[in-house]
Amino acid sequence: MQVDYLIIGQGICGTFLSYELQKAGKKVLVIDEAQPFSSTKVASGVINPVTGRQVVTTWMAEELMPFTWNAYTSIGLEIQQQVIQNCPIQAFPPSEQMLEAYEQKMNNQPSFIQPIAANDIIDYHTYFYFNHGAVAISPAWLVDLHALLKGWRQKLEETSALLEESFDATQLQIHATGITYKNIQAEKVFFCNGVNTFQHPLWEKLPYSFNKGEALIVDIPDLPQNHIYKFGITTLVPWYDGLWWAGSTYDNRYTDALPTDLFRQRKTAELGMLLKGKFTVVDHIASIRPATVERRPFAGLHPTQPAAGILNGMGTKGCSLAPYFAHQLAQHLVNGQPITPAGDVRRFSATLSL
Ligand SMILES: Cc1cc2nc3c(=O)[nH]c(=O)nc-3n(C[C@H](O)[C@H](O)[C@H](O)COP(=O)(O)OP(=O)(O)OC[C@H]3O[C@@H](n4cnc5c(N)ncnc54)[C@H](O)[C@@H]3O)c2cc1C
């Protein structure tokens, strides 16, 4: 079997890379073993233009916000589903200092922080315990990752572009002008298989720094699902079937990828202190984020083995960075356009050439 590009993994990276390459007229084959708790399947799907306690504008947010809206709308048309929606974040600062940090950012141009009407703040006292006011982070997008992965997988199946199996690295041969994998020949192979990518000798030297994230899936009757609610380290995000995703953690000292009793107990106790009404924990999920030391992705071709490429290292921002860098990588392959240097894996040429 001959294809232009072989892609390993159909998380958010493999989904957008295969979409972009097919759109450019290329023949792709995606290998994916459908792991139930991949990072993309556990993620809440939020695209938040601000980050952290200092309320800093997220890297490239002004470019990424419109780009990602258009990217998800376009792929949504392909699979005939609306996979992105505007879902402002209502942030309840845990301290006066944090409220001040938000308020200072309201004067930025453009500002992603807006005041919330006094009446709406009063209404929120029906649902939540909070003492330091509330502000809105807007615009913020919410992506339906499960619908996207499922819809795109179906599309790949329909075009005979999906191989549902575990990738066997011993079967991959990389030559100067192409690759072979079992009976498949391709011009290039792309590693989009999340944390597993870094087990391969080609990429093991890259400065990755994984972290584990957990979330509870919670039933909170009557809480309106038109916003994301953020309370310090706890975020409540509309999930499926009227449920809520409550997370998360950024743990780089984990021993395995499984949900922990400690998280379940702590998050349940926190929710008890935040929510005025009854709630029920119905599930508990966890995964490992393929994050990097620099918090910048790895996109592009290997410096000494250019028949191999990578789209990975999206960390906590896969929903916004993956579509953007998938587009850049496809344009790089098809039209020779450059990749943003801070995301181009060739910034590690020296390390990868050792
Ligand atoms: C708790 C949590 C919450 C998060 N929330 C957000 C959020 O709100 N917004 C945001 O932007 N990001 C969020 N993230 C981060 C985001 O999920 C990741 O950046 C992104 O999903 C990484 O996508 P990926 O395609 O690189 O990897 P993955 O999603 O891990 O995909 C890898 C794919 O490769 C396949 N695969 C792996 N190994 C093999 C193999 N050997 N053979 C065949 N197939 C294989 C897997 O089945 C999988 O489909 C969150 C992450 C976690 C853990």
TrEMBL record:
Under Gene3D superfamilies, the record lists: D-Amino Acid Oxidase, subunit A, domain 2, FAD/NAD(P)-binding domain
InterPro entries found in the cross-reference section: FAD-dep_OxRdtase, FAD/NAD-bd_sf
Report which superkingdom the organism of origin falls in: Bacteria
Q: Which GO terms describe its cellular component?
A: cytoplasm
Question: Cross-referenced SUPFAM superfamilies, in alphabetical order?
Answer: Nucleotide-binding domain
Q: Which segments constitute the FAD dependent oxidoreductase domain?
A: 4-331
This protein's name: FAD-dependent oxidoreductase
Q: Which organism is it from?
A: Filimonas zeae
> Which gene specifies this protein's sequence?
fjo30
